[in-house]
Amino acid sequence: MQELSKLVSECLRRHGLESHDEETASATRVTLARVVRELALIDAAYERLANGSYGACVDCVGPIAADRLLAHPEAARCASCQALFERAHPDSVPPAPPPNLDRPRKPGP
Prior knowledge:
There is one protein chain. By secondary structure, the protein is an all-alpha fold. The protein folds into two domains: 1-52, no CATH class; 55-91, no CATH class. Helix content is 54%, strand content 0%. It is built from four helices and no strands. It has helices spanning 2-14, 22-51, 66-71, 79-88. The radius of gyration is 17 Å and the shape is elongated.
């Protein structure tokens, strides 16, 4: 993730988009890195779709539950294997995106 953040920073700097505010620059790098990661996951899902393996877990080869694929169409692992993967690779789990403060809130009950 740090390498990706470094690449994003270099790209921003080349295009004159690096912020003078380090906090904003850091948030921009994190957001762009998250987007790049999500695009890579989507691209991998398209590859699995093209080769006929979409919907099969890349670890156990069992089926990925339909409700999981509906919620996360980019999912490459069944829920059990994903949990094992995240425990074994805690750094691979991306931080949750910040709340979208521009989105209107639903009225409460």
